[in-house]
Amino acid sequence: MTYLSVRDLTVRLKDGPALLRSVSLDVAAGEVRGLVGESGAGKSMIGKAILGILPRAVEVVSGQIVLDGVDLLTLPPAERRVRVGATCALIPQDPLTALNPSRRIGPQMTDRLVDILGWSRANAAARVQDLLAEVQIVDPARVLRQYPHELSGGMRQRILIASAFAAEPRLIVADEPTTALDVTVQKQILKLIAGMQARHGTALLFVTHDLGVVSKVCQSLSVLYAGKVVEDAAVRAFFAGPKHPYSAALLAATPKYTDPDAGLQPVPADVIAAVRAEVGHG
Amino acid sequence: MVEGRAEVKRKAGLRLWLSAGWLGALVLVALLAPLLAPNDPLAQDLFAGRLPPFWVSGADAAYPLGTDSLGRCVLSRIIFGSRLALTVALTAGVITCIIGAGLGLLAGFWRGWVDVVVSRFIDIWMAFPPVLFSILLIAVIGPGVFSIILAIVVIDWTRFARVVRAEAMAQGAMDYVASARVAGRGRMGIMLREVLPNVLPIVLVLLTLEMGIAVIVEAILSFVNLSISTDDPTWGGMISEGRSSIHQAWWVLVFPLVTLFLTVLSFSQLGEGLKDRFDPVLR
Amino acid sequence: MGLLRTILLRLLTTAITLFGVAVIVFFVIRVVPGNPIAMMLPPGATDEDIARLTALYGLDKSIPAQFWIWGAGVLQGDFGTSITARQPVLAMVLARLPATLELSVLALLIAVLVGGAAALTGTRLRQTKVEGGIDIAGGMALSVPDFLWGLLLILAFGVLMPIFHISGRVTPSLDLPFVTNFYLVESLIRLRLDLTLDLLSHMLLPALSLAIPLAAIIAQLLKQSLKETMHLDYVTLARTHGYSEARVIWREALPNALLPTLTLVGVQFTFLIGGTVIIERLFSYEGLGNMAIDAVINRDLPLIQGIVILFAVIFTGVNLVVDLMYAALNPRLRHG
Ligand SMILES: Nc1ncnc2c1ncn2[C@@H]1O[C@H](COP(=O)(O)OP(=O)(O)O)[C@@H](O)[C@H]1O
Ligand SMILES: [Mg+2]
Fold first, then answer.
1. Partners of A32 in the beta sheet?
2. Percent helix / strand / coil, chain C, rounded to 5
């Protein structure tokens, strides 16, 4: 059953070039979909459009973002905000800047439960403490009283993950959640997200530029190039044989996740040229 | 952006020209005061006291903007008052600028003990209420044009010193200074030939703003009767008199006030306009 | 230990600064050319008179000895005797202090409320005509100093629409039950709201004159700071929680935007207090500043010294409080 369905979404810089061009992608309830593409392809832009946090300089030109049967783009802003807040969440890229430096962890996590979902303070506090335990934070009660600057990057990312699951959302957008972390921590965090997703049955849109990660956590994936989806496939089929030449090149360029020493191969220039022509880019 | 860059630039240009125009006119008026003033600014006519300006009934055509309680011509006094205002603005502004910017440049570029001393002095200066400090000075050395200028210099040199010090420090850290050093040039030479030209635009902006401040300080000191002798025409003195007879003769307050307002506004707008001009983002 | 260290260090620099102020006040009055004693006496005073007064004020001793005597007195609260009023300077100055404090704090309150509201509105409606209007109004407010605003307000609300008082602190014919000189505070405590209104009607225009430039500065700085904060990741993340724009600004951006604004507003508040000198004169408000100008006109040097030092204490005190507030509000310093 499709939970999120993005249809022909076109987004552009105000009075400028298109950043997303007729993008379509579906995420079924409980499914993990990877969203891959090189830096600047527009991956984050899709996530922002869904969550309603597009930069002011950017506007939606056309398309639909259907969440649980309702097109978000037709809703009044306030209603959309609350609906998204109650059913979706974001795991951001950089844990060091994603927590409010002047507020304690506790209220940062409970506020949305109390203010948006109407929970009692006590329930919210208990819930948040359980979640911190679930993301393997020792002494959650203490951490809830701390300020972000007292915690390490890995700890903060765990908190952000716990926070994303706090309201039992139906959909989480994870925007390169491990890119900013140490390599040693990356694996743990990845495992943590996958585990949490499985336990809570949340649909996950997993943004990454790492096909190795996709093969581990995703069931399906969309490949984005210059704001356009060039391939939409099930993970197994994709790794067996990508249909689009750009996807094939991307796959070839990815160091074998099984063998990190295999070396990096650049995407061949002729493939780039062909894809550019196809997506109508220069 | 609500407005385009061209629109912003056009408005900034207009602002610049309007204020420069007013100040230029004022300079001319000050220079040609004896020719322009319809009456002797000191002449009293007790039978013509508190005459209203020309468009109000009961006015005397000889006094276009009316007279004060002693029957002195308001217009003529404003015209002659511009002389003191501009003299103070120019002298005090330039002297303050030279001393403050000089110390700031030395402290910021030379660093070391010069910087320690200058910075400490700036801190102490910041602990003084400026108006009070000027009053203290004038209490000790007595009123007069010289005192006003001295008071402004002594109080406001920190305005220049703080900004120029920071700017010189930033410039000193730049590559062109390092390469001049490597080329074996003396520090003094580098400071004057390389760093100084780069801090000059901001100094010019500060100077313009300082002149506006000097005009206000002069007016304030005249207002509290600590400027030159009370008979001589000053805008602040006229405002002081106008303030006390505000219910009987509003024009004695309003005309010098408007003149002072426009002058101060022009200096500050000119300064802001120049700042925008020199700002590489807008250029 | 971070906070304690900060406090101790700040106390030390405050002491050094105050000492510097005392030295400067002392030397400006004694060393600058001109004989203060001769200036204090009416014209035609004999040399004998001058010599007597010189001895009375200890001016016949060496400068370091004078400084020692004077400094020791100041530390014991002895600021000398006013020449015109023949009363202890300290008592005179302290009697006027409440009026000036009430005026300054009222002005600060107005400036913070108006400036803060303008900054928040400008941020909420950023990149609209409203923000443009706020910027233009702020630019205007800043191009003209408090003295001119005072005169314009006198014209507008004292003459054109005479709805507020333009001189004095309180209507003298009223029956005043006050035992302290904090009239405004006391009228509130005694629930004499008629007096509160009368006091406010006198204080509003001078307070506004002082508040207008400061409000503009607060609006500018805080709005700039808010706009920078609004781009940060944690604010964007908070938006996805479903909070309204107003709440995002208020709860997420404001606490972090306040900190950089606070220090600058502290400095500006000391300028505001300095401005009371001329504004009190303009509105014939019986505070410290008005007394200072009279003291200068009367050449009352002991009184001038006392007032200047008291102002310096207030200034450094404000700066100290601001720095401590900064340390207390900054979680990084609090839990160094
Ligand atoms: N705030 C913004 N203003 C203008 N352009 C932006 C902004 N944010 C992103 N872009 C542009 O949109 C494109 C897509 O960006 P993004 O979605 O962040 O890429 P990525 O796939 O690396 O996440 C890029 O070309 C980027 O330059
Ligand atoms: Mg991205």
1. A204
2. 75, 0, 25
Residues with CB under 6 A from ligand 1: A 13, 19, 37, 39-45, 55, 57
Mark whether C205 and C302 lie in a shared domain: yes
CB atoms within 10 A of CB C325: 15
Interface of C with B in 282-301 (CB under 8 A): 282, 289, 292-293, 295-297, 299, 301
What's the pTM value of the predicted model, to 2 decimals?
0.85
**pLDDT tens figures, B198-220:** 889 899 999 999 999 999 988 98
Minimum-distance ligand 1 atom for the alpha carbon of A224: 21
Lowest mean pLDDT among A7-21, A66-80, A158-172, C252-266: C252-266
- B52 found inside a domain: no
C84 part of contact set with chain B, CB < 8 Å: no
| Residue percentage of chain C with pLDDT more than 90 | 46
Helix (H) or strand (E) segment spanning residue A18 = strand A18-28
> Is residue A148 a contact partner of residue A100, using CB atoms and an 8 Å limit?
yes
CATH of domain A2-97+171-279: 3.40.50.300
All residue ranges of chain B with pLDDT < 50 are 1-2, 281-283
Q: What percent of chain C has pLDDT over 70?
A: 92
Count of domains in chain C?
2
Number of independent structural domains in chain B: 1
Given its phi and psi angles, is residue A204 left (phi above 0), alpha (psi -120 to 50 degrees) or beta?
beta
Assess B255–C contact: CB distance below 8 Å, yes or no.
no
B127–C319 CB contact, under 8 Å: yes
Q: What is the ipTM of this complex?
A: 0.88
